[in-house]
Amino acid sequence: MHSWMKLALAAIPLTVQTVLAQHVVDLTGDGWTVSSKALNISVPGHLPSQAHLDLYAANVIDDPYYGLNDFDLRWIPNNNWTYTSHPLREVSTKSKSSWLVFNGLDTFTTIELCGKFVGTTDNQFRQYSFDVSDIVSSCKSDPVLSLNFGSAPKIANKIAEDPMSEKWPYGPQQIYEFENRWYIRKEQSDFGWDWGPAFAPAGPWRDAYVVQFEKEESIYVLNTDLDIFRQGQINHLPPDQGNPWVVNASIDFLGSLPSNPSMHIEIKDVESGKVLKSAAVSGIHTSGQTITGSITVDADAPDLWWPSGMGKQNLYDTTITVNGEKQEALANVTKRTGFRTIYLNRLNITDDQLAQGIAPGANWHFEVNGQEFYAKGSNFIPPDAFWPRVTEEKMNRLFDAIVAGNQNMLRVWASGAYQPDFIYDIADERGVLLWSEFQFSDAMYPVNETFLEDVAAEVAYNVRRVNHHPSLALWAGGNEIESLELPLIQEADPDNYAYWVGQYEQLFISLILPIVYENSRSISYMPSSTNNGYLYVNLSATVPMAERYDNTTSGEYYSDTDHYNYDSSVAFDLSTYPIGRFANEFGYHSMPSLQTWRQAVDEEDLHFNSSTVMLRNHHYPPGGTETHNYKNTSMGMGEMTMAVERYYPIPDKQDSVANFSAWCHATQLFQADMYKNQIQYYRRGSGMPERQLGSLYWQLEDIWQAPTWAGIEYDGRWKVLHYVARDIYKPIIAAPYWNYTTGDLSVYVTSDLWKTARGTVNLTWIDLSGKPIKGNANTPASTHFTVGGLNTTKIFDTNIASLHLPDKENAVLVMSVQATGHLPNSENGAASTFTHRNKFTPVFSNKLALVDPKVEVSHDQKTGVFTVEAKGGVSLYTWLDYPAGVVGYFDDNAFTLLPGEKRKIGFTVQKDETNGKWVKDVTVQSLWDQTTK
Ligand SMILES: *[C@@H]1O[C@H](CO)[C@@H](O)[C@H](O)[C@H]1NC(C)=O
Ligand SMILES: *[C@@H]1O[C@H](CO)[C@@H](O)[C@H](O)[C@H]1NC(C)=O
Ligand SMILES: *[C@@H]1O[C@H](CO)[C@@H](O)[C@H](O)[C@H]1NC(C)=O
Ligand SMILES: *[C@@H]1O[C@H](CO)[C@@H](O)[C@H](O)[C@H]1NC(C)=O
Ligand SMILES: *[C@@H]1O[C@H](CO)[C@@H](O)[C@H](O)[C@H]1NC(C)=O
Ligand SMILES: *[C@@H]1O[C@H](CO)[C@@H](O)[C@H](O)[C@H]1NC(C)=O
Fold it and tell me: What residues does the Glycoside hydrolase family 2 immunoglobulin-like beta-sandwich domain cover (predicted)?
């Protein structure tokens, strides 16, 4: 058993809900039993949980993440698992009415109470409630609840076999491991993905309650949709920032209301406790089990919520009270929220924009509170294959790393699960925008009536549930469906292409768009992650958003981009990168660190091509339940090897574990450099005709310990990538623009501040021993610059051939920026200083005439700070490493260190199980160490 795998239950969301005239029995906690009749297993269970977690806690199985358990534990999802409660003594048999409320069942469930059938469920993402009044009142003893979870892989296969089920041509339906995921509403990556395992877990994965009413006219709040928008706001149009705010509250409830209910809203500043507004709600209307009404707040009254780096994250507690006829409170609910507008601008480029040099086409960027900004971030995948063990502590550490990494936006990718409220709460506090997606990815989906009704309920529930979070930035229908699946289906079945496009539009436009708009005025919607925008929106049309698809003109830009190229020979060729308005996915995989591998594999498996290491790599996936995926994994492993061999010193150490570790590190160096090259390129695009305003790489973090695209490993350790991304996501950067075919080299300064910044860039050529290169190789030592808001400026332009470098293999250009500018919404309008250092070498790393930099690290007990020094020469990719048992990050890492420099580097401890002893085992290395035996 590993301490980092301890079972922990999901934290209770920050939302406070008070219950009046009602009796609520919380079903969370232990006291449950999980059993399989077929397998004759019965162990203690928990709620929320999943069968794998309870079997692991009971020592029936080994750690599911260890070795090849991904394959060896398939008997678990191939069987039914029944969760049975202890006798629920707290449930009264005398109540007027009784309900079962489930906030998440994964996925196919048959529910029984007191031995009687209650109902079934088939959607992991919905909230379900059942009237069990009759069952409870006739129950002979204390009620026992039983939840019989079916085998999702078997049920999906059974649906697929049904001749009545929809079928698609071979091509668009991307299979990772278990097949037929598109027929069922369950986390799609539970059936495998190219970065994760396929456990297909089952169980009550969210909280559940028994709700009982003691009298008529009592209500229990199931869900709250709090929508804060500027008066007149329409989802796909820019809000008028001068308009008052509308605070619209809509509550879904169980029970019944009196004939004349009223509502009250009080909005309180979280920090000061000051009441911003307290007012009776007007325009109250009830429809079915929902009561809705709104108040307004003066345009300038609230302090705005801003994303990280753009101002403060001002938050307000909003309490909505529903009152009966005598003004008695029937229920109240408090949501922590913020005032902001966030809008995805996909309007056609205007004449004014053309006059500024922006290329024609359409916009594709976000605006917060009416301001364009540069979105910097990455893609968020499920942080664990088992959501019930995703803790608030772990997510706090992850979001601290996101903010420390200079990221302001994550794309919450479309085939995990809708994020629990506590993650949105953490994002609200940190100022991390969450572009959120409905859970559909890399496939065509059914569009029969039953399926659409189920999706409609799922979409409405989740849109309403998270709408109050200021971090919510966008709703997208799904991932890579328009840009990838439609072309694949066109290729597979060209004669029926229009029919398939019709199906796509039926689900992602005709069904989902109106549900988003009905439940939120504040959030933009687009049907699929990468797209060319729309031609027009007509809300009364059957297809309310007419996609542009390929109705494009060359030389114009419309879209966000998704870019992968595993031919590493062009990894640094800028002309192979897409030109678009926003980059929402790009990347290349790398190995995790040795420390992380050791959490999951035996010591003898620590070889690059050991079967365990190879089979934990799921790129490329088997495309079925085959567990000996050597053929496909070899291709993915080979891509990493070839990339290293092309550009970096090839590790060849005598000690096999040291060699493995050096190889893992080398794949990370390639990955980080490649992302950096692309991010620099995209950011420079903010000042180019494409007006590029976002860069979100694939992917932020890992779901487990394996080779993937992640920048943060499963337990929170940063790969080289997360440090390098943090550096290149600084507000003002200097970066080379190098055409290695022609030798043309320019240096650009790029800024994502909103106002003009000024400063100097020092360009210094040195050789690898650290000595200046004669005449600074024809390069001006220092250049003043002015760079506009969200813009770029070229400060140097040359060709390598005209630099008269004595030896290209023994030359480094150090670019140092020192600038003054204003952070958006800075306190009192104060100016700030910005620095950035970058390096350029005119040959790739494996061609450099490296010298031993003699890099050393020391630790000051008193200040806790490390000092790094290079006594022998230039230390490239200076890498501080820390041992297992601690999680955290250095102030800087993977940096260039010049001889004579002393860099003081702190370490932020996020979690320490070594009692401080880890400091002794901090090491430092550089590119040189990749060359030693
Ligand atoms: C397994 O679970 C599914 C879903 O609840 C149910 O339909 C099926 O009858 C169950 N089978 C057994 C043998 O319990
Ligand atoms: C609709 O599609 C779902 C998922 O494929 C399937 O389970 C269901 O049987 C279908 N219903 C009808 C009426 O075709
Ligand atoms: C919500 O209801 C509870 C229970 O009656 C009460 O203590 C609390 O003050 C109420 N909150 C507000 C803000 O009205
Ligand atoms: C945007 O431009 C396209 C041409 O690319 C045109 O067909 C469309 O009508 C324009 N949309 C709007 C809303 O003006
Ligand atoms: C162009 O737009 C029309 C109208 O939206 C659509 O029917 C057609 O399929 C589009 N053409 C292409 C090539 O995408
Ligand atoms: C580099 O130069 C080659 C040859 O002129 C050209 O084809 C390529 O597009 C250039 N690349 C970039 C990124 O400018």
Answer: 259-340
Tell me: the pLDDT tens digits for 794-818?
999 999 999 989 999 999 999 999 9
- The answer for residues whose C-beta is within 8 angstroms of residue 375's C-beta and 6 or more apart is 365, 366, 408, 409, 433, 582, 693, 694, 695, 696
pLDDT at 16 over 90: no
Ligand nearest to the CA of 535: 4
Residue nearest to atom 4 of ligand 3 (CA): 18
- Counting from 1 in the atom list of ligand 3, the atom nearest the Cα of 19 is 4
Residues 91 and 105 reside in one and the same domain: yes
Measured between alpha carbons, how far is 162 from 496 in angstroms, rounded to an integer?
22
List Cα–Cα distances, 613 to 602, 715, 783, in angstroms: 10, 18, 49
User: Looking at the structure, do residues 842 and 914 belong to the same domain, yes or no?
Assistant: no
Residue 118 lies in a domain: yes
Q: How confident is the model at residue 20 (pLDDT cuts 50, 70, 90)?
A: low
- Residue 840, strand partner residues: 813
State the CB neighbour count (10 A cutoff) for residue 75.
11
CATH of the domain at 414: 3.20.20.80
Stated pTM of the model: 0.97
- Give distance in angstroms: CA of 576 to centre of ligand 6: 10
CATH of the domain at 101: 2.60.120.260
Catalytic residue (choose from 187, 429, 480, 869): 480
Active site residue 325: no
Specify the ligand 4 atom closest to the Cα of 537.
13
Ligand nearest to the Cα of 533, by number: 4
Clarify whether residues 414 and 543 are in a common domain.
yes
Query: Per-residue pLDDT tens for 748-784?
Result: 999 999 999 999 999 999 999 999 999 999 999 999 9
- Phi, then psi, of 72 in degrees rounded to 5: -75, -15
Closest C-alpha to 177, from 83, 70, 253: 70
